[in-house]
Amino acid sequence: MTKLVKSIVFVFVFIFNMYSCKVVQTAKVGIDGKPIVNSSTKSKAVKAFFIDSTLVKKHLYTLASDEMEGRKAGTEGIEKAAKYIENEFEKLDLKTFGNLQSYRQTFDFENRRTKENITSSNIIGVLEGKSKKDEYVIVSAHYDHLGKKKRGEGDLIYNGANDDASGVAAVLVLAKYFKEMGNERTIVFAAFTAEEMGLIGSTHFGKGIDASKFVAGINLEMIGKVPSFGPNTAWLTGFERSDFGKIIQKNLEGTGYQLFPDPYKKYNLFFRSDNASLARLGVPSHTFSTTPIDVDPDYHKLTDEAETLNMTVITQTIQAVAKGTTSIINGKDTPKSVVIKE
Length: 342
Ligand SMILES: [Zn+2]
Hints:
The structure is a single chain. By secondary structure, the protein is of the alpha/beta class. Helices cover about 35% and strands about 15% of the residues. The chain has helices spanning about 5-25, 55-65, 75-90, 160-180, 200-205, 245-250, 275-280, 310-330, and strands at about 105-110, 115-125, 130-140, 185-190, 215-220, 235, 260, 285-290.
């Protein structure tokens, strides 16, 4: 080959490689991590099942950044997180909830421990259902965390990447997903405040709703680590308290992703996250998690940083939640009432 031909070939190969990389980056990946070859490539009528890991990472790293200062309720740090979530809801053109004039449900409460008065907001966005507008499914996670350590040297920020920036990232990505896929029931996306101070935000939210309209609650907590059951698994709190978990299991058959009952019974986790605030009102409401909480070295520690999380686990879990809850979102399945006795 002449020098000129060589360089033309080189440029061509270079462009081709760039294009191939791009194709790989945007390929549709299934829950099992294998590329999806589905009918959407043949027929536009069937929509692809696709969760973008780049977007998951962006949300996670932003919410868990030092700039958010540990997102403690009542601080400037959590205000930055609130604005970020509002902005994402705005981009998706979500509606406001009930009588609220914005995505914010702002309220005052007293910190039980310090007795100080705190003003904070739940951030709530709504994707109206097509055929079952008055039947609600809530998808939630708490966006607050522990703030900053008062004394010491070095890193003093409780970034709360797994707890629970990972869950909020999932809420934002699921909002985009269902906006694209469509939904028969109305979905309420909620980022709750002051969970760490005693489920304050979700309890406040519960006071203002007609709980009989809520058919299910999907809460996400700490979905960034490989569970004790191994990869491609998650566990659900209060599994035996309703048939919600069984519906998810049925929908996940054949995907390679498995949902297990919460293996940490002694921690009473069903009552320790925001799902409990709705469950107490009779809503079959459960928390998905992947974290081996009994041995996790970062739980409520300064080391709960984004870099400790496994992006594949988060992305595949969001995919599994999307797929697993679809029959509830589209009105085909309705979980039976929940047992709440402790
Ligand atoms: Zn949490």
